[in-house]
Here is the input.
Amino acid sequence: MSEIPQNRYMNGQPPSWCPECSYFTVLSALTECLDEHGLAPNEVCLVSGSGCSSRLPMFLNTYGMHTLHGRPLPAAIGARLARPDIPVIVTTGDGDLLSIGAAHFVHAARKNFDITVICLNNRMYAMTKNQASPTSPVGYKGTTTPYGKLSAPLNITELAVSCGASMVSRSCAYDKAHVKKMIDAAMNHRGFSLVDVIAPCRAFDQQKDIPERLYDLQAKGHAVNDRESAMREAARVYDSDQDKDAGIPVGIVWKRDDMLCFDDQVKRVLGENKGKYSSLDDIFDELRPNVKFHE
Ligand SMILES: Cc1ncc(C[n+]2csc(CCOP(=O)(O)OP(=O)(O)O)c2C)c(N)n1
Ligand code: SF4
Here is the structure.
């Protein structure tokens, strides 16, 4: 799992992850995917928040931002609006994305910005040494939950579908080819795409029998554009926490190509106001209040 990719995207800084961390697989899958998309390092922007997972852009020589904990999405939206010509990809953790960053997630998905979010979901806070996160199972014993977590996990897949993301998929870091396939599909999609990657933490691992439980939605003939089926599969994501016979769905859960994309709306407004505005900046300039701050 800990193979360091050797390719044109790596900046020579060795990843500061534990040797067996599952994140190496995602790093490798992502860089191979960028290569196959023919993107030079200066033709893609990677944005993260804070956490082990959020370190990923620091090892790459692409454009990148390592922002505050929970805030990768507002930064990514800024990048998206400033550079509509290059892909913007967020690499984040379940804590970063769904705890302090949850409101940003809901609204970025709802507005359907053309951003790919790869959530390295180890179902806990690893960087701060094993606290329960919103996705941790009931009963999870971490440093802040010595008697076990008292609340149910937040199901990111259900949340993403219900708040308006136009593409939602799941994968598992035990299968690099599948992670790559899901990232590739997300990058090819226009609109907000989530790739929720089951990525266990090797230092505080409490998820043991995942590979035996995975089932592939595409192999099962799942209808990705049927909302009822998508919500049914999404609801099963954490069934295996309580039921030893339940499977864990991976693959594309939900995909629609006809949902209103924020970026297309921006283009439409600029097109309808040709001559008045040449870019978004001109609109911002017009709206900017004429207030003088400190000289
Ligand atoms: C505003 C703020 N709150 C809390 C922290 C402390 N902090 C840093 S990383 C982290 C959790 C990271 O968890 P996750 O995003 O799941 O990533 P992982 O380390 O598990 O990959 C926390 C709570 C911080 N840096 N800033
Ligand atoms: S603490 Fe866990 S998530 Fe962080 S680098 Fe180590 S194995 Fe990976």
About this structure: The chain has two domains: 23-260, 262-295.
